[in-house]
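pasting for ref
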Amino acid sequence: MSQTSTNWIVGKKVDLVAFIGGALAGYFVFFLHAGLGWDMLLIYLVFITFLDTPHFFGTYLRTYLDRQEFHARRRLLLGSLLWLAAGPFVLLVCYALFLAGVVRYMAPFEAFVLAVGVWAYWHVVRQHYGFMRLYQVKNGETGLEDRRKDGVLMHLGLLLPFLVFVIRHPESRQAFGLSPQFPAMPTLQELGGISGIVSGSWVGRVAWEHLAAGACAIALACLIGAFVWRQFVKWRRGEPLNVPKILLFCAVLPLHIVVCFSQATLTAPLITFSAFLTIYHDIQYHVLVYCHQRNRFRNEATAKASGIAAVLSRNVFIFGGTVIAFGLLVRCFGCSIQVFNSAQCFGPSLAIVGKVHLFGSISSDTLLGAFYLGFPCHHYFVDQFIWKPSRDKGLRRDLNIEAVRAAA
């Protein structure tokens, strides 16, 4: 029996370059900031326009623009559009609080914005977990033990670094009601020296943030150590090692650990944090959607019945041009209605809609921005349902996955 299993989702080259090697793009963007000191707001603008916003279009291409998929998922796709009203609804709640004389009448909207940011990171975690499950199924790891233990590593391996980032970054600390300044770590002398550490008297002198970050680091080390040991035990038993899955872990875990634990990350604006990690997610998603569409529309009857989705997926140039055009359109329209300020636009914000005061400190641009927040929420919500190979025979076919019910 071979000591390795190397079944890929699309193919060795595509998987290594995009699904695994896409992590290098995250390191590259991080180096532009930490190594070269480039303007992260400009980098973020390029990233959000040409990669991140366009990846939403992949969801629309797979659903609303595909006649067959839209017919099969009509209830989900129509009902999910209510997410576009989520932000304005929260602002309506804020307006009611304003009329009632509540001082912090904007607290619900602030919590909503915070929740969208956390959901965005969770969305990234779940996609990496999905790729892990695809590699498990592709390589015959259908047992419950592998699914559970690898799942714990993927989830906690990405969430623990994020927790460390949140309690360290000045802007995220403020968002959670903490002081912007991360407390300094006491010196050994301030801790009472070695005797103070041994006696435990240091506990009251160390801020809870340091204890939390340390606990996260120890937990991460234990999880990774347990995974390495499990692979060693499997190798000793003569069981095949799942090479693509191992490579995926080697790609995604170090990237998140380096970015979230690095001191350099704290000097970048909070809004730009997503560029470091989400660029990997976006590359994976663009390539997966295109390969899915290519496989799906090899059948001429399916292509004809699906309509414009097949036309826009005909080749990589049409697909790529369309998604980029979508990103530019969304960015330009957002700039024109002042959803984005001049720093988030290419040059001056050429507004075609003036600001109108609504109530308190809120103007019409805040309302439009709240509406815009519904688009990522809608994307996160719909994606939870359309990438379920275990429940979708057609998806298993289009991803070249054997009909294994254990797929995630």
